[in-house]
TrEMBL record:
This is Glycosyltransferase. Keywords: Glycosyltransferase, Transferase. It comes from Arachis hypogaea (Peanut). Gene3D superfamilies: Glycogen Phosphorylase B. The lineage of its organism: Eukaryota, Viridiplantae, Streptophyta, Embryophyta, Tracheophyta. GO terms for molecular function: UDP-glycosyltransferase activity. Pfam families: UDPGT (PF00201). Belongs to the UDP-glycosyltransferase family.
Length: 428
């Protein structure tokens, strides 16, 4: 009987990151039945209910288990910093309990390797403790364009004397399409936390069942993105003006684009909509509060477009499902992703912001109609179908993604057999 190879994986207190690394681990153990993964999650206050729900949905036969570290009290974190900084600080404060947990588990069931989320890189130092000496890997699921920026940031910094956002010429990242400085991240930070529950699933799927194929625009800014009050008004009136069917996931407005990182106050987002909007659009659209089952929506035959914040999880899901996009980046590397989608891959449209940073209702209506029924839509849909087919090929049993993941698992099993240790980077 083959021996079991044990590895540990650590994420951060953000649902989208936890869901991503869990999906990676599920695929890994599916390809290598002798690998057992323990996922370790730092937490703020309490584990995200969506993560608990996701863990409960794992089959009982899976060889992926999990541990939640003792929670960090949110009130003990600085309150005058962005939520992304709070998440990073919570990871740092969780390192002592992570080290103790890893050593305790290792004493009874030795690990051979640690896989760490990009924003939990402090854990790599723990992996090198003398009594552990684990091979260490960074899990980096964003785009290759973002990875190239990370790898060449020092060189680019030396080439550009001013702030990137003030640089007037195109910046050339090796291996990527040229990009303007204002589309680069202001600084690098973690992205998104998850929903509190799934109350909208059955309702929105039933609604989609009654719509024509490719007729609905899905509008969502991820699990952490928010719009200001003025932009919520313009979005509502623009969707109405477009005359196109829409399914909009609405969150209470905020002047901070990532205000929903660590949860929102108990306010009704519907109260911020223009007066009479819901009544006027009753036959045109459906507005859901805070969250919706995104993969179910994108995979539905009635969904014909996705207005997205361009988070990489959402981008990949849209490509895999073959849904063209309207790009509306909010923060972090999302502007880079928007450039890649609209100017590189040409599978989406990007609206224009006015001088106050607002996309006006007429612009929204024009871009929505352009994607859903405009002259450009046939070419865009053809290209997204080609990408969908390429993604499906990569995920086949003999596809490039499956093959690379299998080779990674084989490397881990060789570590178990006493071969040399490795350190590395895992990309999507």
């Amino acid at each position: 009987m083959a021996k079991i190879t044990h590895i540990a994986a650590i994420s951060i207190p953000a649902f989208s990151h936890q869901a991503s690394i869990l999906e990676f681990c599920k695929r890994l153990v599916h390809l290598h039945h002798n690998i057992h993964v323990t996922c370790i999650f730092p937490t703020i206050d309490s584990p995200p209910p969506a993560t608990i729900s996701l863990l409960q949905s794992l089959p009982s036969s899976t060889t992926v288990d999990h541990i939640f570290l003792p929670p960090i009290n949110k009130q003990d974190l600085p309150q005058d910093v962005p939520p992304a900084v709070q998440i990073q600080l919570a990871v740092s404060q969780s390192m002592p309990s992570f080290r103790a947990t890893l050593h305790q588990l290792h004493s009874t069931t030795p690990f051979v390797a640690l896989v760490a989320d990009t924003f939990a890189s402090e854990a790599l130092q723990v992996a090198k403790d003398i009594s552990l000496n684990l091979s260490a890997y960074i899990y980096f699921p964003p785009s290759a364009m973002t990875l190239s920026l990370f790898l060449h940031l020092k060189t680019l910094h030396n080439q550009v004397s001013c702030e990137y956002r003030d640089h007037k010429e195109l910046i050339r990242i090796p291996g990527c399409i040229p990009i303007y400085g204002h589309d680069l991240p202001e600084h690098f930070r973690v992205i998104q936390t998850g929903p509190n529950s799934d109350p909208n699933g059955p309702e929105c799927v039933r609604w989609l069942d009654n719509q024509r194929p490719n007729s609905v625009l899905y509008v969502s800014f991820g699990s952490g993105g928010t719009l200001c009050q003025e932009q919520v008004n313009e979005m509502a009136l623009g969707l109405e003006l477009s005359g196109q069917k829409f399914l909009w996931v609405l969150r209470a407005p905020s002047d901070s684009a990532n205000a929903a990182y660590l949860g929102a106050e108990n306010v009704d987002p519907l109260s911020f909509l223009p007066r009479g909007f819901l009544e006027r659009t009753k036959g045109q659209g459906l507005v859901l509060v805070n969250w919706a089952p995104q993969t179910q929506i994108l995979s539905h035959s009635s969904t014909g477009g996705f207005l997205t914040h361009c988070g990489w999880n959402s981008t990949l899901e849209s490509i895999v499902m073959g849904v063209p996009m309207i790009t509306w980046p909010l923060f972090a590397e999302q502007r880079m992703n928007a450039v890649l989608l609209t100017e590189g891959l040409k599978v989406g449209l990007r609206p224009k912001f006015n001088s106050d940073g607002i996309v006006e209702r007429d612009e929204i209506a024009m871009v929505v109609k352009g994607l859903m029924v405009g002259e450009e839509t046939n070419g865009i849909r053809q290209r997204i179908r080609e990408l969908k087919d390429a993604a499906a090929d990569a995920l086949k049993e003999d596809g490039s993604s499956t093959r690379d993941l299998f080779q990674f698992g084989t490397r881990l099993e060789n570590l178990k057999r006493g071969h040399q240790t490795f350190d590395g980077l895992i990309t999507s």
